[in-house]
Amino acid sequence: MPKGMGKALAQNKKANHDYAIEETFEAGIVLQGTEIKSIRNGRVNLKDSYARIERGEVFLLNMHVSPYEQGNRYNHDPLRTRKLLLKKREIAKLIGATKEEGYALVPLKMYVKNGYAKVLIGLGKGKKKYDKREDLKKKEAKRDIERAFRERQKM
């Protein structure tokens, strides 16, 4: 199964608007207790979350996993820092890339693949305001062309 495929549980739609994603990496995630049950129920939010490299390891910060209803005392802090599992070669590549100005690690999607929770993180360069406007114009123009083409097909 290619990376990024699997049952999507959460997506960060704002990431593609705010960043020009240049490369993606599939990472496993270290979870505790009832977090996986809550994630499988789709009670996860990637908005405002980001990844950071510390001491040669990648961590995901600000990802909200709602407490599991039947978890009682076994539930964990919803916003705790979670470790991402990547290969050494991938981490080395990310360390070199994030040292450049303007690059960030952004989680794009969370999904379950072969029974394991995975996070698709993207190496993105922040967009300026005029870049965002340009993308919206292109998207709108493409939509208008498709609409006109459909109208023409109906006749």
Descriptive report:
With 155 residues, the protein is α+β, with helices and mostly antiparallel strands. The chain is 32% helix and 36% strand. It contains four helices and nine strands. The strands form two sheets. A seven-stranded antiparallel β-sheet has the order 1-8-9-2-7-5-4. A two-stranded antiparallel ribbon has the order 3-6. Strand 8 (103-113) and strand 9 (116-126) form a beta hairpin. The relative contact order is 0.24.
Topology pattern, helix = H, strand = E:
EHEHEEEEEHEEH
Specify the overall morphology: globular
What is the rounded distance between the termini? 41 Å
Number of strands: 9
Residues in helix, %: 25-40%
Structural class: alpha+beta
- Give the number of helices: 4
Q: Pick out the low-confidence regions.
A: none
CA gyration radius, whole angstroms: 18 Å
- Average pLDDT, rounded to a whole number, is 86
Largest β sheet strand count, sense and barrel closure: 7 strands, antiparallel
Strand order of the largest sheet: 1-8-9-2-7-5-4
What does this entry show, briefly?
The chain has 155 residues and is of the alpha+beta class. It is built from four helices and nine strands; from the N terminus they run βαβαβββββαββα. The strands form two sheets. It has a seven-stranded antiparallel sheet with strand order 1-8-9-2-7-5-4. Strands 3-6 form a two-stranded antiparallel ribbon.
